[in-house]
Specification:
The structure holds two protein chains of two kinds. By secondary structure, chain A is mainly α. Chain A is 71% helix and 2% strand. Chain A has a domain at 297-520. Chain A has 20 helices and five strands. In chain A, helix 10 packs antiparallel against helix 11 and helix 17 (418-432) packs across helix 19. The radius of gyration of chain A is 22 Å and the shape is globular. Chain B has 25 helices and three strands. A three-stranded mixed β-sheet of chain B has the order 1-2-3. In chain B, helix 1 runs antiparallel to helix 4 (118-137), helix 2 runs parallel beside helix 4 and helix 3 (88-111) packs antiparallel against helix 4 (118-137). Chain B starts with a strand and ends with a helix. The chains are: A mainly alpha, B mainly alpha. Chain A binds chain B through residues 186-187, 190-191, 194-195, 198, 227, 229, 232-233, 235-237, 239-240, 244, 249-251, 253-254, 256-257, 295-297, 299-300, 303-304, 311, 314-318, 448, 451, and chain B through 595, 598-599, 601-603, 605-606, 608-609, 611, 613, 615-617, 619-620, 622-624, 626-628, 630-632, 634-635.
């Protein structure tokens, strides 16, 4: 007879909120009349994410391993879960915006209708929405929260799939430029499956070497026997799978295409939440599973951080599309985050852990805000994301330009924004650990990356507006939509957080410092 | 002598500075509301300061009094207390500044009566007096420096008061920039004091300067001298002072004759304990003084602009004072005495010149004057007394104080004593020549009046109002009596003994009576020469073009501007151009090249982003191989 594992329902409550809401969403999809679905789905998704967020806060201070050792409830995990749930709730708000697009949503009316068909054109102007995006997104958020709490490689893999599959789907649900969106979804799916294969193979090799998939068992094996070839090979393949999700170069190639093709709220969601989840898993794998074998993975992370920063910053220079530019920015930031991961200390508190946690929170909020601004600038065919269309935007819409400037300055790491605090924290963690050359490279690439962020600022403030007579008048200038309540909330929260975390980061830094513990 | 804490009225001596400063603040911040009475307030504050200075001086009673105010800078090892030092030396300066300052304020009420920006003028003038008082009353070099820069600012603002005239704007900039050269010297001297001695107070510096190596003391001395040369218009930084005459005439009288330009003399006299230790620096001071004395006197002979002649005369007379302080202990008191009498008669001369200009529609070309003695009797008499005092006419002010300096120069002994004494005597002759020339061209001869500009009437000279003539009369009394009072009646060197100590009684190389007679004879020769060359002939209304090379050189002020241009301005311009070139080609090139390189590599790397999933997958596979390889290499290695 198999004994049921001991479950701490309290420790699982954040996940239960998310998955429960997702299941309710599926039921609503099946039984509720079409007209009532959208508000109901939004409400359920928000209840799920906010509930998950609140329950992680209530769990603060808990340290336990539950579900037969498969799940860890610890400070770092809860911090990451709260970050994901919070950012997820804001993303849901972006999804729910119905005021900006004339067709009342960023999402397609009916995904099953072939793009470009007569029916598709008819539906373009209808107010129908494929409301499955809400349960799908809720499942993805649940998967991410499971991902960062997984204390077992197999659970981690399941979580990876739970978070990935809905993402593949909702990436393809853009209302406009549907072919681009579907192409992105297909690419993401194919490459994601490829990466999952690496992860799974790595898992198998580790199991072969250790005889267990539990992180604590792996740690024991590493400590006792050192890293055998099989184990190291397994670690390498696991890392490939995780770094793909975190869009770290050289596993980044999907990022620009998918970021560009996916509906912008989904891009915001991916840019913010997926990054947090993937880095949460990387941190747990390296710090808990292979923490005692630091000197095996350290040189690799060191090198990959440099590659990612350089590739992201340099390739970002020549982008002319804002969404692609932010995609390369996300690759560069993955490199900056890896500099924080370097700051590991097996014997005591890892300064790198708290720095990386703070950075993830700050970066997630700023990215979400930046993409939220993108949803507001539109031309006749959806969002106007080409750089030239943003010329002189400050004259037309000073508030929007100011908010975007704030986000861009934060991404560039200018003082008095959260980006500076985050960069300062991760660079200091790296320097404290003796990796000052890495910090130097990071600073140089920050300087390079600052160019393309500031170029947008210059364009908004110091160029003739697109479509004005002085600029030739050939290009139709974009319109700046009036955001509804959801987007306004998102912009207010993210802008305020970006500023507060830059000016008065003390309390949040302390919180990240206190949370920076993994349970073994 | 040790300083004692201030008591009684002396503890309120900070009001000396605060009153004019408050006046300036009210006038500047009060705006148009103060237009009607602002000039009176400005004058009243200076007058009040003067009364207070007199009262303080009577209470002083040959003590040195310290007034602690507040902590000015407290940073690391640098601790600067804002404190005042009221001793006999600062007392005489305070009296000169507030006394002459008050008279010139009164005069300005008349002179600037019709200027639309009169309030602003008085505000700047008050600001100047406050800064100048801080300069002489501060008890440390940093306070002196603050005052030093303050008077520089006020001087700049006042030279450029009529900034709509390009010449005034240029002159102000020239004054500012040349002063800056000197100020760097003063600042460096203070830095050296702080690094070597750890203090900047007079008490601390003078107490421990003897412990320093000789070279360091000489360096401090020379740097201080550089500062003094800039502020006092001494060689090689003399060229700004004549140009500064573009400012309103009361400014020329107060700032560029009586007070600010003598700050250099004050600095060196105040730093006497430093200069006493360094023979080298003192010799340089002597040379600077002697050279400037001659340059000023020669240039003064050739100019036709009445204010420029007086300006070169100022340069020359300050040269005398530098010569005196360069002589060391025997010269300090003589220098200060000459400084005071010069302050009276030169201020009077400038006010007289202002009165003449007032009568002549603001013209300054003496070739267009002539015969003004009868039209402007008060001006003529007061100006004439100032003139006699300046050329050292026996028993007037200049005679006593200039003679003392010339005697001291001869008393130095040896060949250098004879050379310096000779230069000083020759300078006295030249002074007599150019001043007599000025008198002849302005007040005597046939009137050569002409309209100030085409289309206007020929001026009808008339005497200035009493508000202007009264200060001139008061100053002329000073021109007559100050020398006798300071040298004979109430000897200044005894009053200054607490500061400079008792100088040894020098052995006279040449008997004082002989010197006195010789100087008088040379002076009379100068007057005679002026009568021969200028007085007995008709003055041409256009300066003759065919003149001797000496005259030509003198007209160019001995090519000071040309030398400055070729030595400093042109190399500076070349350096600027070279730096711009390096910036354009080198720095910008590197930056642009880097940007182009990054952009190029970005475009090249971007080609890997083909949009095909197969390419992406291949890239990931390659990355995975690298990761595996790297980890295995680390494990194996």
């Amino acid at each position: 007879m198999i004994e049921a594992p001991d479950l701490s329902l309290a420790g699982l409550s954040p996940l239960l909120f998310l998955f429960g809401a997702a299941c309710v969403g599926v039921l609503i999809e099946a039984f509720a009349p079409r007209d009532t679905r959208h508000p109901a789905q939004v409400a359920v998704a928000l209840v799920g994410t906010v509930g998950g967020f609140v329950s992680t806060l209530l769990l603060a201070g808990t340290r336990e391993v539950t579900a037969a050792g498969a799940l860890a409830v610890d400070g770092a995990g809860l911090f990451l879960q709260a970050t994901i749930a919070g950012l997820g709730a804001l993303s849901i708000l972006l999804f729910a915006e119905r005021g900006l697009d004339p067709a009342r949503s960023s999402f397609v009316a009916s995904a099953a209708v072939p793009a470009g068909s007569v029916r598709d054109r008819e539906l373009l102007t209808s107010s129908r929405v494929q409301t499955e995006v809400y349960p799908l997104a809720t499942f993805a958020i649940g998967g991410m929260m499971l991902f960062v709490a997984a204390n077992d490689l197999l659970v981690m893999f399941v979580a990876l799939e739970v978070l990935s599959l809905p993402l593949y789907l909702i990436s393809g649900l853009a209302r406009r430029r549907r072919l681009l969106s579907q192409e992105a979804a297909l690419k993401y799916f194919l490459l994601g499956a490829f990466a999952s294969g690496f992860f799974l193979y790595g898992l198998a090799l580790v199991y072969g070497a250790v005889g267990s998939v539990r992180l604590s068992d792996i740690q024991e094996a590493v400590t006792d026997e050192g890293g055998g070839t099989l184990l190291v090979l397994g670690l390498a393949l696991l890392l490939v799978g995780l770094m793909f999700k975190a869009s770290v170069a050289p596993f980044h190639s999907w990022t620009p295409d998918v970021y560009q093709g996916a509906p912008t709220p989904v891009t915001a969601f991916m840019g913010a939440c997926t990054k947090v989840a993937a880095f949460g898993a990387i941190l747990r794998l390296l710090y808990v599973g292979f923490g005692t074998d630091e000197w095996t993975w350290r040189p690799l992370i060191y090198g990959i951080a440099i590659v990612s920063m350089v590739v992201g910053a340099v390739l970002g220079l020549t982008q002319t599309d804002l969404k692609r530019m932010l995609a390369y920015s996300s690759i560069a930031h993955a490199g900056f985050l890896l500099t924080g991961v370097i700051g590991f200390d097996a014997t005591g508190d890892s300064p790198g852990l708290s720095a990386t946690l703070f950075y993830l929170l700050a970066y997630g909020l700023t990215t979400l805000g930046a993409f939220a601004v993108l949803t507001m600038v539109r031309d006749g065919d959806g969002e106007a994301t080409h750089l030239s269309q943003w010329a002189g935007l400050a004259r037309r819409s000073p508030v929007l330009a100011a908010v975007m400037t704030l986000f861009l300055l934060a991404l560039a790491g200018i003082p008095l924004t959260s980006g500076f605090t985050g960069k300062f924290a991760v660079f200091r963690a790296a320097i404290d650990d003796g990796a000052w050359p890495l910090a130097v490279v990071a600073l140089l690439t920050s300087a390079i990356a600052a160019f393309f962020y500031l170029r947008v600022v210059v364009l908004m403030y110091f160029s003739e507006p697109a479509g004005s007579s002085a600029a030739g008048g050939s290009l139709e200038g974009p319109t700046v939509g009036v955001p509804g309540l959801p987007t306004t909330i998102v912009l207010a929260v993210t802008a305020a957080a970006t500023l507060v975390l830059g000016v008065l980061p003390g309390s949040v830094l302390d919180l990240a410092g206190q949370a920076a513990r993994f349970v073994g | 002598m040790d300083t004692v804490p201030a008591d009684g009225l002396l503890s309120a001596s900070w009001l000396l500075i605060a009153l004019p400063l408050a006046g300036a603040a009210v006038l500047l911040l009060g705006g148009k509301r103060t237009d009607r009475w602002g000039h009176l307030l400005g004058t009243a504050t200076i007058a009040a300061s003067f009364v207070l200075a007199v009262a303080c001086t009577f209470q002083l009673d040959d003590r040195q009094v310290a007034v602690d105010l507040f902590t000015f800078i407290d940073s690391g090892n640098l601790d600067v207390q804002a404190g005042l030092l009221f001793d006999p030396l600062s007392a005489v300066f305070a009296l000169l500044i507030t006394g002459v300052g008050a008279l010139i304020h009164v005069y300005s009420i008349g002179y600037m009566a019709h200027d639309p920006r009169r309030r602003r003028f008085f505000a700047y003038l008050n600001l100047f007096v406050a800064a100048m008082l801080l300069l002489v009353l501060g008890d440390n070099y940093v306070a002196l420096y603050v005052g030093w820069e303050g008077v520089g600012l006020a001087s700049y603002l006042l030279i450029a008061f009529w900034h709509e005239r390009p010449a005034a704007a240029t002159a102000a900039k020239k004054a500012f920039i040349m002063n800056r050269v000197g100020d760097v010297g003063l600042a460096l001297a203070i830095f050296v004091m702080f690094t070597q001695l750890g203090t900047v107070t007079y008490e601390g510096v003078f107490g421990s300067v003897g412990l320093l190596a000789g070279g360091t003391v000489t360096a401090i001395g020379l740097l201080l001298l550089l500062g003094a040369c800039g502020k006092s218009g001494q060689f090689p930084l003399q060229a700004w002072l004549p140009d500064a005459m573009e400012g309103p005439t009361p400014v020329s009288a107060l700032i560029h004759a009586a007070t600010m330009v003598t700050a250099g003399v004050y600095l060196i006299a105040r730093s006497a304990p430093i200069f006493d230790l360094t023979e080298t620096a003192r010799t340089v001071v002597l040379c600077v003084g002697a050279i400037t004395l001659m340059i000023g006197a020669i240039a003064g002979c050739a100019f036709d602009d009445i204010k420029k002649v007086l300006a070169y005369s100022t340069v020359s007379q300050i040269g005398y004072m530098f010569l005196a302080v360069g002589l060391g202990p025997i010269g300090y008191a003589a220098a200060i005495a000459h400084l005071l009498t010069h302050g009276f008669f030169k201020a009077g001369l400038f006010l007289g010149a202002g009165s003449v200009m007032h009568a002549m529609d603001d013209q300054v070309d003496m070739r267009r004057f002539g015969g003004l003695a009868r039209k402007l009797p008060v001006t003529f008499v007061t100006f004439g007394l100032g003139y006699l005092a300046l050329i050292g006419f026996p028993f007037l002010s200049g005679y006593w104080t200039k003679d003392a300096i010339i005697e001291a120069a001869f008393d130095r002994g040896g060949a250098s004593g004879w050379v310096l004494g000779g230069v000083a005597v020759l300078g006295a002759g030249l002074t007599a020549f150019y001043m007599t020339r000025l008198m002849f061209m302005t007040f005597f001869g046939r009137p050569r009046w002409a309209p100030s500009e085409p289309g206007r009437e020929t001026p009808h000279p008339h005497e200035s109002p009493p508000v202007m003539t009264v200060p001139m009369i008061v100053l002329s009394v000073g021109s007559i009596a100050a020398g006798f009072l300071l040298v004979q009646a109430f000897p200044l060197d005894e009053w200054l003994e607490p500061v400079f100590g008792v100088p040894e009684e020098a052995e006279h190389v040449v008997a004082p009576a002989v010197v006195g007679i010789a100087v008088t004879v040379v002076m009379l020769l100068g007057v005679l020469a002026a009568w021969l060359f200028v007085g007995r002939r008709e003055v041409p209304v256009v300066a003759p073009a065919r003149v001797s090379p000496v005259t030509r050189a003198a007209r160019k002020a001995l090519y000071a501007d040309a030398i400055n241009e070729s030595l400093f301005m042109r190399p500076g311009q070349w350096l600027t151009r070279a730096l711009v070139w390096v910036d354009n080609r080198g720095v910008d090139g590197a930056v642009n090249g880097l940007a182009a390189g990054l952009g190029g590599s970005s475009a090249r790397l971007g080609r890997a982003q083909t949009g095909f999933v197969r390419t992406y997958a291949l890239g990931m596979l390659g990355g995975a191989v690298l990761v595996v390889g790297a980890l295995l290499a680390v494990t194996a290695g």
